[in-house]
Write a structure and sequence with these properties.
Layout: H1 2-6, E1 14-15, H2 16-33, E2 38-42, E3 51-52, H3 58-67, E4 77-84, E5 88-96, H4 113-124, E6 129-135, E7 139-147
Parallel strand pairs: 2-4
Antiparallel strand pairs: 1-3, 4-5, 5-7, 6-7
Helix pairs in contact: 3-4
Amino acid sequence: MMQYILYDCDREEIALDEEMNFLKGYFEIEQNKFPKATIVLKLPEHMPLIKIPPLLFLPLVENSFKHGKHRLEDMAKVSAELMIDDEKIVFCITNDILKLDQSKIKDKRGGIGLTNIRQRLKLYYPERNQLLISSAELTYKTELIIYRT
């Protein structure tokens, strides 16, 4: 993983399967840290030859693990899925959240992940992306859609 971050990510684009292999490692580390949590990364059986900017999905993954319920309670879930068709790439990640008043929680670190990804999407995929964020009572979901044409 360190090799990927230090050496491979200095390129403007990286193969999608390389990016997903990096995320697989990230999910495995988190599963080892939180063995009672359900941590799942679902990928297509066949990964087409698609190039993307390196570490594009990482802020979404980091947010799910940073703010997820699994950090404080057993049996919580973080799940992500990559879906690809001829028209679009969809990366969806969902995590359980604690039932807390989020407006009262102030995290002095961070807060730049979503801003960063929005700026990168504007640069790499202008007018061809959607970043959808939703939350239900106990779940937080982020869906990144990149239109291929």
